[in-house]
Amino acid sequence: MKNRLIQTLCAGAMLAATLPSTVSAAECIAPANPGGGWDFTCRQIGKIMFDIGAVDKPIQVTNMAGAGGGLAYGHVVNERADDADLIVAASSATSTRLAQNAYAGMTADQVRFVGAIGADPGVVVVAADSPFESLGDLVEAMKADPASVAIAGGSAVGGFDHLKPLMILQRAGFTDITKVKYIGVDGGADAITQTVGGFTQVMSGDMSEVVGFLKAGDIKVLAVLTEDRVPGFDDIPTAKEQGFDVVAVNWRGLYVPKGISDDQFASWADKLQQVADSDEWKQAMADNGLAPFTKVGDDFQNYVNGLVAEINQMSKDIGVIQ
Predict the structure, then answer these.
(1) Is 207 left (phi over 0), alpha (psi -120 to 50) or beta?
(2) C-alpha dihedral (27, 29, 34, 36), degrees to nearest 10
(3) Whole-Å CA distances, 274 to 13, 18, 46, 191
(4) Interaxial angle between packed helices 37-51 and 262-277, expressed in degrees from 0 to 180 and rounded to the nearest 10
């Protein structure tokens, strides 16, 4: 009996040693303090993964604020490069900062971007009484006289709100983007107020920042910068359907350490897809003003690669980086 007990214990120990790492609790790093977008991404996606059975144990959330996400990025690259039980919250700010070398020389190819499953759509907005009725009207006016149109945005010069209209203009064949008049103010609320008040002609921002003004009839949204029209705002055309192939959203997603295997990468992509397909996530998006934006696995990695390259070149063109 004693020998059998010993054999059973040994067998159990051997089995535990060979079980895949997904049985242990995974960790999601939110590169910021509690509250805000990255924390939301970790907590909501992690909770839903467990609730729908995509993972066996609740995902632990670790807040690691610092350097606009750079502290967490360095931690993953330098100390957790092959940790298959680690996911990290990311957004458009992550790709922009990597493109602009804001993470002390670290580059986007030092991790793998596994997916995004929701986004705050980028928008191009004018006041309700603006003469511009379409994105094409605005683009033609700016091509003819760039200085005649001032654009307000909630990010600094070189930030994503600045880059969105530049992407549109480049698609239209306008290359002298240094002539575009951009005014960075303290957040989207200030930017939309500038435009409604007539101090600027255009606001570049995100849908969540302008919904109240739109419902009040104070503005027109000339374009939403998504693949498809945003549910609930179906009368607003995309830039793509107006002939400008630009998708620029504040996506909410995840990256993983570069050193994990292709199978482990695919497993996380599958888990994220399960969350995207769930009723729980659809409700979370509705509750938090997010629009559908689902890209996982290699599709998302390729999207981020293209975005980083474009932002890097554009940032050089406007003098934000050398």
Answers:
(1) alpha
(2) -120
(3) 32, 26, 12, 37
(4) 90
List, for residues 180-218, the tens digit of each pLDDT value. Answer: 999 999 889 899 999 999 999 999 999 989 999 999 999
Nearest to 257 by CA among 41, 96, 84, 32: 84
Examine domains 2-119+250-317 and 120-242 and report if their fold is the same.
yes
**35-66 pLDDT, tens digit each:** 888 999 999 999 999 999 999 999 999 999 99
Both tokens assigned to 11: 């067998």
Is 111:258 a contact under the CB 8 Å cutoff? yes
User: Six-digit token pair at 294?
Assistant: 């689902």
- What is the rounded distance in angstroms from the CA atom of residue 322 to the CA atom of residue 316? 6
Domain limits, the chain: 2-119+250-317, 120-242
pTM: 0.84
Does the domain at residues 120-242 carry the CATH identifier 3.40.830.10? Answer: no
Domain 2-119+250-317 homologous superfamily, CATH:
Bordetella uptake gene, domain 1 (3.40.190.150)
* Alpha-carbon gap, residue 179 to 163, rounded angstroms: 13
pLDDT, the chain, mean: 91
Tokens of 102: 């804001």
